[in-house]
Model the fold of this input.
Amino acid sequence: MHLNTQRWRGLWARWQLPAWRVVLFRTFLYSGLWWVLTEGAGSVWLGVLLALAIALFAPLNNAPWSTHLRWWKLPTFIGFMAKRSVSGAIDVAKLALSRHCDLNTHTRTYYFRLLTCPSQQLLMANLVNLTPGTLTLCMRDNTLHIHILNHPEIAAQLRELESRIAELYGWNHGY
Done:
């Protein structure tokens, strides 16, 4: 196995010591999380050392949400996803409880039309996983490979989901 030391040297050269207030805040935050996770029974010093290490070496600018996200549209989107998840769960429950379970499982390849940024595509892939009866298998080259339990109109649902995510980022496209 070959270890690419050049890559590690490049990462180490770009690393900068965070501001002391950031380190202090993160250390308190992670120490508190350690205390909660261990229910107060874990070693305090071990927790503080782990928290300090994480606070020093965790990237500061690795935000999963884009600055272009329209935060005021998020409640509507959460409502849309909640409604979709509940209706999908009811459909799967009906299939599971029916005597004659005639499943129509297959895989589908979905080509992204609107989402070009990999983080936005990853958001869609994860949201597809939240919908009962669907599972993201692979995401590669602006495509999404999905396993479907029993949804004949999945293409329209995927286009609608992509349009809703695009609206979150300020792109107004009809679905």
